[in-house]
């Protein structure tokens, strides 16, 4: 494994130097070689930490590297707009979940993660761009985490389909109201979503009827 790590280091450095020279000689006005260099840098880092089985430490190093890269990119190309704050939050959750081990699979962790995500992006929405409530989109996505985990643990799949349908309906109605209140288009995706709990109900009902009839035959 040590030979593979040394080979990856040499190969990464050689390729990064080559790309840097090509970038400088052909298009010095655009520093594009940093993008493949990030992936090349992750190659020996990944081999090293995987060989040592340091998975938690690997998540910290990679997260820090990616965040540093995004901050530098933000500073170079758009210093007046701090867009990196949108991306770093989910990246930070990678090492957090790694260090939580089995606790990462609990409903409590899901609820805390869901609540903190909603609060973070809502505050960011209010501070950075209060003219449009875009925080509803990450809120809609992150709510699925505790919702799916809760019903999966209890195997209440029909109830999950009903709850999920209500969530989807609320989301589309909200987006409809804040984006285009003059056009009522939310009814179309809501109508399609209604087929989910309906089909789940009849599937369970039909299966119960089959088992009941089979039991009578016995």
From TrEMBL:
Question: What is the protein's given name?
Answer: Uncharacterized protein
Segments passing through the bilayer: 7-26, 32-51, 58-77, 83-100, 107-128, 134-150, 157-177, 183-204
Keywords, A to Z, come to:
Membrane, Transmembrane, Transmembrane helix
Q: Which domain of life is it from?
A: Bacteria
**This protein's record includes keyword Membrane:** yes
What organism is the protein native to? Lysinibacillus boronitolerans JCM 21713 = 10a = NBRC 103108
């Amino acid at each position: 494994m040590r030979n593979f790590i040394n080979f990856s280091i040499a190969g990464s450095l050689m390729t990064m130097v080559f790309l840097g020279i090509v970038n400088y000689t052909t298009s010095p006005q655009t520093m594009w070689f940093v993008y493949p260099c990030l992936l090349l840098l992750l190659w020996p880092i990944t081999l090293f930490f995987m060989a040592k089985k340091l998975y938690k430490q690997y998540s910290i190093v990679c997260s820090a590297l990616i965040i540093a890269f995004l901050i530098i990119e933000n500073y170079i190309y758009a210093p007046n707009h701090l867009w990196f704050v949108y991306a770093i939050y989910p990246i930070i959750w990678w090492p957090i979940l790694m260090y939580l081990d089995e606790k990462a699979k609990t409903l409590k962790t899901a609820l805390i993660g869901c609540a903190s995500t909603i609060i973070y992006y809502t505050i960011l929405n209010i501070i950075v761009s209060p003219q449009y409530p875009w925080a509803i989109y990450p809120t809609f996505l992150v709510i699925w985490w505790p919702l799916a985990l809760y019903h999966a643990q209890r195997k209440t799949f029909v109830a999950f389909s009903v709850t999920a349908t209500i969530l989807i309906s609320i989301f589309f109605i909200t987006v409809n109201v804040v984006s285009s209140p003059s056009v009522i288009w939310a009814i179309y995706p809501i109508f399609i979503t209604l087929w989910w709990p309906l089909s789940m109900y009849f599937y369970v009902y039909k299966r119960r009827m089959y088992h009941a009839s089979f039991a009578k035959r016995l």
